[in-house]
Write a structure and sequence with these properties.
alpha+beta, Trna Endonuclease, Chain: A, domain 1, 2 domains, three-stranded antiparallel sheet
Amino acid sequence: MEKRELPGHIAAALAGAGGNTDSAGQSWEGRDLSGSGNPLHNFDQDDGTADAAYTEALSALVRGTGGEVDVVRALATARVFVPIVAQLAEEEAGAHGLSADKQADMALVTVQAPDGRRALPVFTSIAALEAWHPEARPVAVYAARAALSAVAEKAELLVVDPGAELTFVVRRPGMWALAKQQEWVPSYKDEWLTGIVSQAVAVEADISGVGLAPGGGIGAKTAAGQIVAGGGAGPELRLVLKVREGLGRTELQALAARLQRRLGGDPDFMERVDSLEISFTR
């Protein structure tokens, strides 16, 4: 089995938490680990519950008084828990052909999204993680660090609290913004993209107008069935094209394919847009 190394910051956090002794074998008992000078972690006063600012931003999204940008902004400064599980690394043959000396490494948990993309699950509370995977070990990190771990694992989505009342998905551009500690601008609100798209459609004589709108997949659904306007896995961006009368289905499909290839070859577009759908108007 190929050995998967933990990202350095996750390995360090794991090594500094959860045992009866430190790395030198000295007992934790009787030692004061509180205060800003604690070198082991930043969460010594953490009670394992969800970050209040994130919870409020998510509630505002459900109420319709906030947006997914606000949720990602709150997540940027929140502590989350990354699930770690043991995986078999080596297995040697013992006496009489029986396996022996098994060694287990700790590995990040990744999941596959419905569209096939790899996703890294993170949790805002210990309770949410334990409800999802009782055997996983929680490692507390800031969300930006979790996003870096997702990039290292070649994940394209950060899934917050899978299995909860509302699972919030941070799509690739938002995940990258978290990792780089930058403000995230959703593609459907990104004025920079207007120029890129306009240039891409300029060579198409059958197109007389173009608009950018939220894609049909940005919404998420609560466990109770309520649709909220954010936190979905995509499609993220809808390209609305006004075309001339008389174009048939085959011609429209060919037109959409040409635009997708053209935009897919633009690195700025690919960095800013997670997923795309195209619709037509007359």
